[in-house]
Known about the structure:
mainly alpha, 2 strands, single chain, two-stranded antiparallel sheet, Four Helix Bundle (Hemerythrin (Met), subunit A)
Amino acid sequence: MHFFLDLIERRFAELDRRSRKLLDLLDDHTLYKRPTETVNAMVPFSCGEFIVRSAAKVEQTFGGITTRLWDDPFEWTLPEKLSTVEGVREYLDEVTAIRQRGLAFFASDADLQREIPSPEKQRSLGEILLETIATSEHYLGRASAIYQTISSNAPPRL
């Protein structure tokens, strides 16, 4: 039975679709543009940074599930590495492939109950995947809000 696995895959695919739709509204100049009041802030505060953080969370999770390496893909997802809309789009393609390979390891919904070592403690695969979806959606929501701020347009219907 694959009811929950199919539901989880659809949620991840929807996140990817929404990320790409927002990315399509940007160009290389606006990708990492920050609202003027946060130009000197140390926290990531641009559409591009939050789109990439959303995808990086998915990459980190599926890397952890498949290889037990829970490394944050921080260094290869920096704006210096992914400096263009096309570069971010290619990164989203890579994350999609990683996600699809990872989900191929699941044989049935029962696999979602298995516990594995995660960065902090033993947790079920289902719990890890649901947390990843929530975190990725949060980052994407922040990217959408920043788009509204820098473009003076209504937030995109993602």
